[in-house]
Write a structure and sequence with these properties.
This protein is mainly alpha-helical. The protein is built from 16 helices and 10 strands.
Length: 451
């Protein structure tokens, strides 16, 4: 049975999972289209549900962020910023990260389940679109698991609860209970490996997925799960993409010279966030990681005289997709953890050559042992990928390894001022609660925290 798509997306997906209005099924939409051709299915990838996958809420939970406003003005980001159990801002509506991810899953599932019935197109073309949908579905589940489930170690906690794995497009189906972490990650990695067999080598649109993008997503997932050898394997594949792979020389650029996302040679895949971080400032702790003269500060930030250093409104910093620098750093981390000190530092210094001006002290880093190399790789990763959607994942995996220090929230971003809240190592607050409306409407879905 073909799915019906409404021009207004308000009525899409399971009402009790994403909190659409209770009576939407009784309302006749003003416009509808039934996907029948390959082009119809391709058009699904143009909507924000398939391009702006990741709300920025988790960026406010990281140690990179500082919010200048008082508690009463924080609004939707307050619960994330202070690591309160619930991300819910309005108990009548699910938080965007849950709602948007499952909306994207619905569209992905439509393509996965129905594309082979399209009236035209070759089998290879249909499989290619299915591979795109599988990749997007895996990314959405990664975002959901990062927020609403514990960090995953296959050897330590495979049976911990993950999130509901929804693969059906039938809105009358019962919402499934939470799958285990192992079940969730097994589906994601299976999808991505299958997608790599079907996806094209290149695409002239960086919003679209190629086999090397799927490899990059696998590298990110395996990094998050601490499977560093597998992460290195897929990062190496991603770096072999025939699409332009050129690290930009930030030292030779002014703000107005910085390329748009669509033509940025460092971007393998663009996965945007709909927000602009206008209230997000660099934390005191993050600023300590940048040396004087680092071109990343010059290009991506501005000084607000009242609040501090914040992200430039026009900065190319909103894409949470896969980039070549991230893949290089995945490789460097694996090498450092494997005791390959010099190769790891060669990658770090290759990136720094394009970020730190020539002649600046400390431009080239040297490590004397594997632990030093790993610390330097992780520090460079934090600098290079700031506000790119990976820091909360890094905090969670490093906390699981015992490498994450306490994170503090101070008044005025000043460690000498009043302490408001601390996220302690090993804290249960690294996992946010399943949205209250989901729990209230689905008794088979269990909470993370005792109510």
């Amino acid at each position: 049975m073909k799915s019906v798509f409404y021009i207004s997306i308000i009525g899409v997906f399971f009402s009790n999972l994403v909190s659409c209005s209770d009576d939407f099924l009784e309302v006749t939409p003003k416009g509808e289209t039934i996907p029948e051709t390959l082009e119809d299915y391709e058009l699904l990838f143009n909507g924000i549900a398939m391009t702006d996958l990741m709300p920025d809420i988790l960026q406010f939970a990281t140690d990179n962020s500082y919010i200048s406003h008082g508690i009463e003005e924080l609004g939707k980001v307050e619960n994330a910023y202070y690591w309160n159990h619930n991300l819910d801002y309005d108990l009548e509506e699910n938080p965007e990260i849950w709602k948007n991810a499952y909306l994207g899953q619905y569209y992905s599932n439509v393509v996965i389940n129905e594309i082979m019935e399209a009236k035209d197109g070759t089998e290879a073309e249909k499989r290619s679109l299915m591979g795109q949908a599988m990749t997007i579905r895996a990314m959405n589940y990664l975002y959901l698991l990062t927020a609403f489930a514990n960090a995953y170690d296959p050897e330590r906690n495979p049976d911990d609860p993950g999130v509901p794995l929804v693969t059906s497009i039938n809105v009358t189906d019962e919402i499934p209970a939470r799958s285990t972490l192992k079940e969730c990650f097994d589906l994601m990695t299976y999808d991505l490996k299958q997608a790599m067999e079907w996806l094209p080598e290149t695409h002239n649109n960086r919003w679209r997925v190629t086999r090397y993008v799927a490899a990059g997503v696998l590298a990110r997932i395996y990094t998050y799960t601490g499977q560093y050898e597998e992460a290195d394997t897929y990062a190496t594949i991603a770096l072999q993409s025939p699409q332009t792979n050129k690290i930009l020389d930030y030292n030779a650029m002014e703000v107005e010279d910085f390329p748009d996302l669509e033509v940025n040679s460092e971007r393998l895949w663009i996965d945007n966030t709909p927000s602009n971080y206008s209230d997000c400032l660099y934390s005191y702790d993050l600023l300590e990681y940048f040396q004087e003269g680092d071109s990343r500060i010059r290009l991506f930030t501005r000084i607000d005289e009242e609040t501090g250093i914040t992200i430039r409104d026009d900065a190319d910093i909103r894409s949470f997709g896969i980039s070549y620098p991230e893949m290089y750093l995945v490789r460097a981390e694996y090498l450092a953890r494997s005791g390959e000190v010099n190769p790891a530092m060669e990658i770090v210094n290759m990136l720094r050559e394009f970020r730190i001006p020539e002649g600046a002290p400390g431009r080239e880093l040297t490590a004397t042992n594997a632990e030093e190399a790993l610390e330097m790789v992780l520090a460079e990763r934090r600098r290079e990928l700031v506000f790119r959607g990976t820091r909360w994942m890094d905090m969670k995996r490093l906390d699981l390894e015992g490498r994450m220090p306490a994170v503090h929230r101070y008044v005025n971003n000043d460690p000498g001022d009043n302490l408001i809240r601390t996220l302690e190592p090993g804290s249960a607050d690294y996992t946010f609660e399943i949205p209250m409306k989901v729990l209230s409407m689905n008794t088979n879905i269990k909470p993370n925290h005792q109510q």
